[in-house]
Specification:
SPT20 protein, alpha+beta, Ssp411, 4 domains, four-stranded mixed sheet, 731 residues
């Protein structure tokens, strides 16, 4: 279009989500002083809208309301309007989501909140349709009513907002209450296991009927529970629950069989019809969970899924400078000529499309069988589409198929009279042809912002996969991403992490004019990643950086009065509350992961005050851990690691020697939730020897690579055979 479009202040932002709204008729401001000053000066209410770029209902509300000229005029006349990308500012999102959940009983995005000029919330909700309906008030009506209230009853409204804030402060506080010791690990683990097995779906795996989320935190808990109860029926059951869930997810439509990787969640009980966005944090955590499943079971099926996830991330979510992008959207244009986007358009298939792509007769199969017949049978494709209308309220998937593995290879082969050995190659040929056809479709929107926290989760995924699958390439990819973080998301002058950076015009990496400082989760997930990367690569530089970041995290976020860490720093006056997240959800809560980080940090440094801090966090969350540990499975898991004390596995040897490598392979092949690996290479001037003087007393026996198992800096007798070492790691 030759006419320059109207632009608001968001045009100067870097976040893909904010840029999506830069040409709305709404006079949007980013979160910041300019907007706050305007609200105060003009004595106007603030309308705050929070979302993220791959959020389906955010797109809907923008199309219906924020692109509507009349609604835009009402907003501009009565409010200072602020737009926030929750992935850039999880702190702002959390404060107001706490309010919305407390006052409306539900939450989600887009989040719509009305604030007084001094940023106190007094009304809020999520998605509003533009006009009044039978069951819901329309957005236009709400805007006008609230503006009217502000004119008529300003004082009552201000007083009310103050009361709300005080109540929020009270309910959201997590702190030590009189009790001085961490909760008993055995009871916490037993209760959490019980609560998970009560909500477990025996048939399809997972922990609810529908919608179904991948929740890697639950699976990690179950793996740890199994490792500590290997010989009991409950231990066996825990492992079975985790492996079955991972298998069913990999067969399901939540797994992209053509383009690899996993979608966000399933709308049904069978893992069949997903919401199609793909998030970096899911790929990172699932790569780690499937790696553990392979490490424990030895079943190649799980290793194949790991490779599938990492192929997707390397190909579609990787920046050339080494960082990882945030997400791919669910909605896209069905064809280049389409006028409107549809959910899942990039991923779904009509039966006739598949027939046309796979017409070849298959030799050795029942007379007249085509490759299409075999493929459609195996993946549950139906002529009229395989999505039930219940899963498709907007009829966007009518007549389409979401691929889902319906049969074992043996059953599909038998159905068409094939040798079972031939099926794999036929299905792969089918997938490759569909993949080539899909590459011709318009791609969904890619959110190219790069977040420290999510990059941390992905680095852990690559590092753990490298270790479990013995793939050096994955470890190198993790190291490249860690070097990227160091270069683009770390300020060496202040020693602080930054939250985000962005892909610029010419594929360069850009930073916003005022960079967003890292939050607790950025430190915690990056520190975890650096420990995982050290164990995979044995490069001590990553360890040194992790410990520096841990000191900085203590300084910025620790709550010396109530214990545990705040999610955000103390230096932002626009934040009304400093909160502590108490839920392990799609991502684990930062305080949960930091317990294990602190224990690992103490093992690598000898700083025992970190062990004390870990205990204080568990103490602060004690009540929740004892009553509903299912809300904090990652922290429940950490209570066991705390209780059983981490074992330092020290390998004394030459990193390049074959005997050393053999010992390392042995350590890497065993899943043990409470081991910390270190290599004593004999370099007494190196970082580890300076941190841990006791290493100097450990020697190579008969000049061979030698392993010691140490706990609280006291060590076992030396062993030089991988078999003996394995026996010590799996008592």
């Amino acid at each position: 279009p030759s006419v320059p479009r109207h632009a608001n202040r968001l045009v100067n932002e870097k976040s893909p989500y904010l840029l999506q709204h830069a040409h709305n008729p709404v006079d949007w401001y980013p979160w910041g002083q300019e907007a706050f000053d305007k609200a105060k000066k003009e004595n106007k209410l603030i309308f705050l809208s929070v979302g993220y770029s791959t959020c389906h209902w955010c797109h809907v509300m923008e199309e219906e309301s924020f692109k509507n000229k009349e609604i835009g005029e009402i907003m501009n006349k009565n409010y200072v309007c602020i737009k926030v990308d929750r992935e850039e500012r999880p702190d702002v999102d959390k404060v107001y989501m706490t309010f919305v959940q407390a006052t409306s009983g539900g939450g989600g995005w887009p989040m719509s909140v009305w604030l007084t000029p001094d940023l106190k919330p007094f009304a809020g909700g999520t998605y509003f349709p533009p006009e009044d309906g039978v069951h819901r008030v329309g957005f236009r009506t709400v805007l006008l009513r609230i503006a009217e209230q502000w004119k008529e009853n300003k004082d009552a409204l201000l007083e009310n907002s103050q009361k709300i804030l005080e109540a929020l402060l009270h309910v959201s506080e997590v702190r030590v209450q009189g009790q001085e010791s961490p909760p008993p690990s055995k009871e916490v683990m037993a209760t959490c296991f019980q609560q998970l097995s009560n909500s477990y779906d025996e048939d399809y795996g997972g922990f609810s009927k529908s919608p179904k989320f991948p929740t890697p935190v639950n699976l990690n808990f179950l793996f740890t529970y199994w490792a500590l109860h290997r010989t009991t029926p409950e231990g066996a059951q825990a492992l079975q629950m985790a492996l079955h869930t991972l298998k069913m997810m990999a067969h399901g439509g939540i797994h992209d069989h053509i383009g690899q990787g996993f979608h966000r969640y399933s709308t049904d009980q069978h893992w069949h019809v997903p919401h199609f966005e793909k998030m970096l944090y899911d790929q990172g955590q699932l790569a780690a969970a499937y790696s553990r499943a392979f490490q424990i079971s030895g079943d190649r099926f799980f290793a194949d899924v790991v490779q599938d996830i990492l192929l997707y991330v390397s190909r579609d979510l990787s920046d050339q400078a080494g960082g990882f992008y945030s997400a791919e959207d669910a909605d896209s244009y069905p064809t280049a000529a389409s006028g409107e986007k549809r959910e899942g358009a990039f991923c779904v298939w009509a039966a006739e499309e598949i027939r046309a792509l796979l017409p070849d007769p298959v030799e050795g199969a029942t007379e007249g069988t085509t490759l299409g017949d075999i493929f459609m049978h195996h993946y549950g494709v139906k002529e009229t589409g395989n999505v039930s209308p219940m899963q498709d309220p907007h009829q966007e998937l009518k007549g389409k198929n979401v691929l889902i593995v319906r049969y074992s290879p043996e059953l599909t082969a038998a159905r068409f009279g094939l040798e079972p050995g031939r099926l794999g190659a036929l299905l792969q040929e089918g997938r490759q042809r569909l993949s080539a056809a899909r590459a011709q479709r318009p791609r969904p929107h890619l959110d190219t912002k790069m977040l420290a926290a999510w990059n941390g989760l992905m680095i852990s995924g690559f590092a753990q996969a490298g270790v479990a699958l013995g793939e050096q390439g994955y470890v190198s990819r993790a190291a490249r991403a860690a070097a990227f973080l160091r270069r683009h998301l770390f300020d060496p002058a202040s020693g602080r992490l930054l939250r985000s950076c962005y892909r610029g015009e010419d594929d360069s990496v850009e930073q916003s004019a005022v960079p967003i400082q890292g939050f607790l989760e950025d430190y915690v997930f990056v520190i975890q990643a650096l420990f995982d990367l050290y164990e995979a690569s044995l490069e001590q530089g990553w360890l040194e950086w992790a410990l520096q970041l841990q000191h900085m995290q203590d300084k910025l976020f620790w709550d010396p009065k109530g214990f545990a860490y705040f999610s955000s720093g103390a230096d932002d006056p626009s934040l009304l509350l400093r909160l502590k997240n108490d839920q392990d959800g799609a991502e684990p809560a930062a305080n949960s992961v930091t317990v294990t980080n602190l224990l690992r940090a103490a093992c690598y440094s000898g700083h025992t005050e970190w062990v004390e801090k870990a205990g204080q966090i568990l103490t602060a969350f004690s009540e929740r851990l004892q009553k509903i540990p299912i809300a904090l499975p990652e922290m429940a898991r950490a209570t066991a690691v705390f209780h059983h004390t981490l074992k330092q596995v020290v390998i004394c040897g030459d990193p390049k020697g074959e005997d050393t490598k053999e010992m390392l392979r042995c350590v890497h092949s065993v899943f043990s939730p409470n081991k910390v690996l270190m290599l004593a290479d004999g370099d007494s001037a190196g970082f580890l020897y300076r941190q841990l003087p006791f290493l100097a007393s450990l020697e190579r026996k008969d000049g061979k690579a030698t392993a010691y198992l140490c706990s609280n800096f006291a060590c076992s007798l030396p062993v030089t055979s991988p078999q003996e070492l394995r026996g010590m790691l799996c008592p």
